[in-house]
Amino acid sequence: MFKAKSSIQFLPSGKEGGGILPWVIAVMTYLSALSIGSGFALHNMSDLWSSELSQSMTIQISNADDESVAEQAASVLEILKSMPEVTSAELLSDDKITSLLEPWLGSGNVTDDLPIPAMITAQLVPNRHVDIIALEGKLHAVAPDAKLDGHQQWVDQLLKLSATIQATSGLAVVLIMLTTVAIIVFATNARLSAHKENIEIVHLMGAEDSAISREFKNRFMIYGFKGGVGGLVAAIITIIVFYILTKDLGDGLTPKLTLNLWQILTLGLIPFAVSLLSMVTADKAVRKALIKMM
Amino acid sequence: MIRFENVGMRYGMDSEILKDISFELERGSFHFLTGASGAGKSSLLKLLYLAHRPSRGLTSFFDVNTVISTRAALPKLRRRIGVVFQEFRLLEHLTAVENVMLPMVLAGEVKEERLKEQSKELLSWVGLKDKFEARPSTLSGGEKQRLAIARAVIGRPDLLLADEPTGNVDPEMAQRLMHLFVELNKIGTTTVIATHDISMVKHMNAPELRLKNGELELIPAAGNAANPTVGEV
Ligand SMILES: Nc1ncnc2c1ncn2[C@@H]1O[C@H](COP(=O)(O)OP(=O)(O)OP(=O)(O)O)[C@@H](O)[C@H]1O
Ligand SMILES: [Mg+2]
């Protein structure tokens, strides 16, 4: 493949079947890089969500009778604090709850008449599973009005959604690859038929299939690399623009889209993978055509 | 060196245009291949330059049975065969010199400067001294023919096949080209020349492979000794 190139090439250097190929490959690379990049970002986001959310739980106690609420809250706190999985538990003050509600209800609108439940938040030891059902039973025994929110359901649903989206983008990448292969096969065949005569002549002069295919392999490898780099650069620009645009959006709602070093390296490998794909596909298509000659 | 036994040939599903062809080409032999237009001369040559598989029979090239050999064994055999095609089949994007150099480059020749000198020498010899850098499309029919001949002989092939190699040149140039073939034959190149030119066949006093109705007949050299230069082993 890297044999010194003779000054005499059996095919003219024209672009038959190849002129727009780098552009098509660039678009395909752009789409798959975005799919892969957003898949990675979503993966990281899910990790963040599941670790942040599953490290805490909330208990709500609501009853018209304030005294009963206070009593129940005290019992709940006692139980929580006795648990080894719980690092800390605290009862949110009315002021804190009011300030949490203000963004939704507007300042000054949280009146004393508004039935505000007692809120207890508990921080959990990271990565340690808490049996929510058993805990719920235990809490109900002392505080019948307690409602436990382990965030588990919320996290589970988010994770399910994110896994579905990741699978979909994986599928999209596979489809894009298959389409790219088909386009390269078309382009190779176009070049083959544009130069059928020359190929037949050198075949009859005793050129090996590998020598004939080498011309195509080198050319399509370059097409693939050009397109791959172009598409990746465009995708990176898109990701950066997206990052800048979303950076200042509500902090709690849209966790930061970040990529780690390995993921960035993986994206960097895309042009090489694309040019390899392009080269191998062209080689296969050429050999398939040559095998029809004696 | 080349052996055909009961060889048949057909294009696609058509009926056989060559039937039961049997002959042997000894190393260093010289034959004319004759027959009316459409008799199958070019078709037989296609079998001889390994462009087409026979529909039946046995073919053997340089002691390799090509009916049972793998496809991968053929390029090496082809590199020992030089062909002057009836339609020349030159590469349009290359200059005359590059066309002549091509077979050797494909065969792996790396000393391109020397090869270029040899190619120019050969082109001068066939009267194309002024056309080294010309593209085939700018050449006349006869010039193309001489270029095609130069390309076929540059590698001193073991087997030289020429399809009507003197059809487009004047008698004087025809003589000169035939002389080139004879000289190559003298140094051991087995030669088969397809032609219509009966007077040339008579003049050269070489054995004749005559195609008629799809069958091949071998007519030995007349032996009038006027020109005993060819066909000697
Ligand atoms: N590629 C092909 N497909 C189908 N039939 C073909 C093909 N090439 C040649 N033929 C047929 O085979 C027969 C022999 O053709 P061929 O070219 O071998 O004759 P030839 O003796 O070389 O004639 P000429 O002297 O005119 O060159 C002809 O009837 C021709 O129509
Ligand atoms: Mg013919």
How does this structure look, described?
The complex is a heterodimer of chains A (294) and B (233). Chain A has 294 residues and is α+β, with helices and mostly antiparallel strands. Helix content of chain A is 66%, strand content 8%. A four-stranded antiparallel beta sheet of chain A has the order 2-3-1-4, covered by helices on one side. Chain A is rod-shaped. Chain A starts with 20 loop residues before the first helix and ends with a helix. The model of chain A has no long low-confidence stretch (mean pLDDT 83). Helix content of chain B is 32%, strand content 23%. The radius of gyration of chain B is 17 Å and the shape is globular. In chain B, strand 7, helix 6 (171-186) and strand 8 form a beta-alpha-beta unit. With 233 residues, chain B is an alpha/beta fold. The interface between A and B is medium-sized, with 22 and 29 residues. Bound molecules: adenosine-5'-triphosphate (ATP) and magnesium ion. Magnesium ion (MG) binds at residues 41-42, 86, 163 of chain B.
Highlighted features:
heterodimer; A: 294 residues; alpha+beta; 2 domains; 4-stranded antiparallel beta sheet; 8 helices; 4 strands; 8% strand; rod-shaped; B: 233 residues; alpha/beta; 6-stranded mixed beta sheet; 7 helices; 10 strands; binds adenosine-5'-triphosphate; binds magnesium ion
In DSSP terms (H or I, runs of 4 or more residues), the helix count of chain A works out at: 8
What distance lies between the first and last C-alpha atoms of chain A, to the nearest angstrom?
Answer: 24 Å
* Major beta-sheet overview of chain A: 4 strands, antiparallel
Radius of gyration based on Cα positions of chain A: 31 Å
Tally of helical segments of chain B: 7
> What share of the residues of chain A lie within helices?
55-70%
